Description:
Largest sheet: 7 strands, mixed
Strand content: 15-25%
Shape: elongated
Order of helices and strands: HEHEHEHEHEEHEHEHEHEHEHEEH
Number of helices: 12
Amino acid sequence: MMIQRRSRTLAAACLLAATATLAVSGCSKSETTNDAGGDSSQGAQAAKSPEAASGPGCSLKTYGAPKIDLKDAVVGFSQSEKEANPFRIAETQSIKDEAAKIGVKKLLTTNAQSQLSKQISDIQDMLSQGAQFLIIAPLNSDGLEPALKAAAAKKVPVLTVDRKVNSTACKDYVAFLGSDFVEQGKRAADAMIKATGGKGKVAILLGASGNNVTTDRTKGFVDQIKAEAPGIRIVAQQTGEFARDKGQQVMEQLIQSKPDITAVYAENDEMGLGAVTALKAAGKKPGKDVKIVSVDGTRNAVQALVNGEYNAVIESNPRFGPLAFATAGKFYGGEEIPENVIITDRAYDETNAKASLGGAY
């Protein structure tokens, strides 16, 4: 994921790390409530620095956008998926909370409901309503070009969060803020090796197709297993679309077609929790008969760890509000923003799950 770094971006990356350690709890049951979602002091999102900030820098001058004061601006946030997933709930609330905290004049929020065409029209609608800065959680890595071109035509800067777009940085968007998804896959593989003793038959519950998260989390896991654990066989890879019900359905099918599976790698917690339900219904003990490792860090998954029904969770922190607005502030202050601003993610296992539950979302 890392590409050649330019020295001029390092200072910007360091400053980003210093400002990005603010936390927003933001795990509510809906977009309209403000119930806390964990201990924000434990759940802070921070950028790695400087090594993980990569790509050529993008400044306000290079991008060609007018300078604005975010407090007096109209800011738009485009959410990709329905608020049924704790990650999306926490992500949206984090953006809302930080916008309110810094005094943004008007925040427009939309939800694409997992429809690419709707996300495109959502972004175009926000531009029509006068959005001057956009934060986008892309549904897919490809397909948003019409929306990005519409923003570029109006000189409206765009930050993408949690998923990358296959477009040109500092032309179609300013920067990507998010995790190193290949590294998440590798860490999940290491956790799986530990949980299984390096032996067994593993099924992978893949995320949604068409985005870099699924591709990278799969690559990181498969490559690490191949390199470090020849005693583990990956016997199935099926898409669960990042959804709990789909993860449960796929697991039910796998229990029938491959009853000798001894472990599951789910590319998000929701699919992993769906697998837990399926395994219990089949009379198996998740976490014991079948080891489970997933990625996200939701409170439900960490609680499953506490309950002994899970074996490890690699965090993917959704609290982008502080980092996104800190990055925007520096961009409008004339600083260069690296093409990729990579955040830190922690890991949960049986040794820290109970103590860390308050920081989960």
